Amino acid sequence: MPTNKLDVSIRTALGALLMTALLAGCSKHATDAAVPPETPAQPAPAAPDATPPADVLPAPEAAPAAPVQPPPDAPPPTEPSAAPKPTAAAEPSLDSMKLATPSAKLSVAADLRYQFDGAALPNQPVILHLAAVPRVSGGKLSVIVREADGVQLSPGALSLQKAGRADVYRQQFSVTRSAHAATELAVLLTMETSGGSAFGFFSVPFDSGTNAQKQDSVKQR
Amino acid sequence: MRKYSRGLTLAGIAALLLSACGGGGGGGGSSSSSSSSSGGGSNVAPIASAGTNQTVTSGVTVTLNGTASSDPDGSVAGYAWSQTSGAPTVTLTSGTTSQPTFPAPTVTTAATLTFSLVVTDNRGATSPAASVNVTVNPAAGSNVNVTGAVTFARVPFAATGNRGLDYANPVQRPARGVTVRAKDAGTQAVLATGSTDETGNYTLSVASNTTIAIEVVARLQRTGTPSWDVRAQDGISGNSPYTYALAGSFNSSAGGSHNVAIPTGISAAGVAPGARPSGPFAALDTIYQGMQTILGVAPNTIFPALIVDWGSQADGTFFTAGGGQHIALLSDLTKDTDEFDQHVVAHEFGHYIEHNFSRADNIGGAHGLGDMLDIRVAFGEGFGYAFAAMVLNDPIARDSYFDGTLQRSGSFNVETNPPTGSDDQACWCSESSVWSLLWDLYDANADANDTLALGFGPLWSVLIGAQKDTPAFTSVFSFVSALKAARPADAAAIDTLVAAQQITTAGIDAFATTESHFVPGVSPLASLPLYTNISVGAGPVTIATTDDAGHHNKLGTHRYFRFTPTSPGTVNISVSSSNPSNPDPDFRVFRAGTPVLNEEDPPPQPETGSLTVAANTTYVLDVYDCANGCDTVQGTAGDFSLTVTIN
Q1: I want to staple B347 with a disulfide (CB 3.0 to 4.6 A). Which of B341, B388, B389, B641 is the partner?
Q2: Is the peptide bond before B529 cis (omega within 30 degrees of 0)?
């Protein structure tokens, strides 16, 4: 069952806002000395191969957006909140975004960073900013936010034919979670390199907490 | 007395033909199941009766009963009994009497013996054969063998492209080495336990005439030499391995095969409404195959206990030796499940092998295809996938997932050398280079640069020998230098393979002292030399660290020093960082891979520690700033200097 039931006028307005934000969609890694640092307040030119959300402005090379469908055994999603959708926000700087955690096995050579514009409170829409940053050049980069129980997402997926090392590929989603929703989102990244094709599921927790304290971990390999 | 003419009369020929067709008429001779005449008049064939079927117990005297045989126009004059099928063959007291006997033989499972009776009448005609079955059950109180075969459903990859798993076409495979139990159907008490063999067959010795149920346990277990104990269980539901029960119950003396076919529980569309019974058995079977690879070169291997956590894993697929040795396997059918991904399972088992029988200095952590890695990680992960290809004799590694719409898979070929001149190029820091190199050393396929076909034995010898004892970190450098030393006749061919991975071959040693291939895009100062010499009391030494290739376990985040004290005593080590915001230097000291000092405290800097050292022993120091080198992101990564002093 589709989760986004905005009427045409609202979709048009939201699309314009998202498009504005997406003009800042692709910029170089702030720490890469070869390129200017990011300027979050000023939209950066979009890279030729940066693809906005499919429901906003499909690029010629954009793959069809993955349909947002619940798994066959999933309960019906919670009805949308009556609260208005949030407007698109300026993109946060890359360094201010948290690193999403990939699953612990061979994955995609890319970092996924994320940031919510505010607290992801129950039944309150919030903008989720995602930024994929490849560590090696490749192709067929895609970013798909997977469905989660009790979470409504604006549809869309990022899909690029080429991805450059340390380039930043951004995407925004409107996210509304119910009171009993999943505690995190799973984001699927796929990419091809000369060595083969790889994928990775990254965890994006709604309550991301802080990384300030040193953590011990059991070595996993 | 009737005289016979020399030639047959027309009537005589007709009579013979009628006789041959079973009809009446004159003429001599007889045949079975035919009537005959003798001295004039017809004779109807007798009718044999072998009695009713019997079920007896081993040891009792069985009497066959042919007394109900009859002859419509005369009398039964003779009996001829014979055993026509069944084992064992028995000896009748007399095969020519109406009621022969024999002792019911000793059997371990129910056996059916079939006997035939032919009778002859008083005029020489014989009857058609009659038969009777005698079923012999084992004697009460004795054991019987219950047998069968166990198979599990494996979901294969789709035949073409990266289309993921083909749930519509599962295939049954023998469940090798798994535990099988016979349980009392009433009390559920375990009556017998055994394991399946190489073909999935099992034999259990159970008390006769007992109503039992068969249960298959997801556990590989063998005692003695070699030995192993590997069980698959739900990661958060205790220590009980998964089980699968054969539906229903049966009498242990019933005989026959009690086969168990364990299904996937997954629909053709990839949906599982309930349990997924074959999953843990699929994972175990890959591990079983991995053990066979090791046993092929080390037949007396004692494998330490291993637990496969599957069914509730959401944190990833990995091997860990913390808190017992575990292989965790993802099990989320809606995203990523790994029980049928044989290369993934065998890869993790490779980590277990390296950890237990060689040495794994691998610091773990997330890594992606094409990453430039810390050399310890590159070797461990590269070995894992090379080992998987060797176990499965399949160089194409695949890992399945569900993208929300379609079944998909990632894949790569360990036979393919990484490219040169790209971001994911061949490198001493690339797991792709390591698996490609190890595979070329192993395989018999003479592709580019590859004239070697060493098989697994020589690689194993290095892994359990020099690689295990190297004073450096375990890496492609320690492995290759040891292999060349062990096989001088192959040194040139090994060099050819190594050079193809953009690794310097001249003077190669465990500490990579001659390595000169820098990695584009990664600060040269933070790349080579891999190990910086430092002397006790010789003043500070500064090196560079970077996040150019990523954080934690990527190239340039952790830097190494080595020092060899000339005299025993206590040394004081201090490390500071140039990180302008919240510097947090940390370090660890190793002796031949064994950590002897861990100093990984929070700020402020410098990080310091003391260590009692032995003379003329090489120590390796791993230093990093936490912003670059910790496994969880802490602070802002970047290019920093690390200054080390040892006094």
Answers
A1: B388
A2: yes
Q: Which residues from chain A sit within 8 angstroms of residue B629, using beta carbons?
A: none
Whether residue B318 and residue A190 make contact (CB cut-off 8 A), yes or no, is no
| Secondary structure (DSSP) of B82-126 | EEEE-SS----S-TTSSS-EEEPPP-SS-EEEEEEEEEEETTS-B
Question: Residue B636: is it exposed, middle or buried by C-beta count within 10 angstroms (0-12/13-18/19+)?
Answer: middle
Same domain, B371 and B336: no
- The pLDDT tens digits for B251-306 are 998 888 999 999 999 999 999 999 999 999 999 999 999 999 999 999 999 999 99
Q: What residues of B are in contact with residue A133 (Cβ under 8 Å)?
A: none
Do residue B364 and residue A106 have CB atoms under 8 angstroms apart? Answer: no
Segment A200-217 shows an average pLDDT of 65
Q: Which two tokens stand for residue B253?
A: 């003396």
**pLDDT single digits (tens) B184-198:** 999 999 999 999 999
Residues B251 and B320 in one domain: yes
For residue B64, give its domain range.
10-137
Q: Give the integer Cα–Cα distance in Å for B276 and B267.
A: 10
Asked whether the predicted pLDDT for residue B60 surpasses 90, the reply is no
User: B354 contacts in A (CB within 8 Å)?
Assistant: none
Distance CA B284, CA B308 (A): 8
Quick one: B207 and B350 in the same domain?
yes
Q: Which of A188-192, A217-221, B560-564 has the lowest average pLDDT? A: A217-221
- B367 assigned to some structural domain: yes
CA pair distance B222, B158, nearest whole angstrom:
35
The structural domains of chain A, ordered by start, are 8-205 (2.60.40.1230)
Total of domains in chain B:
4
Q: How confident is the model at residue B110 (pLDDT cuts 50, 70, 90)?
A: confident
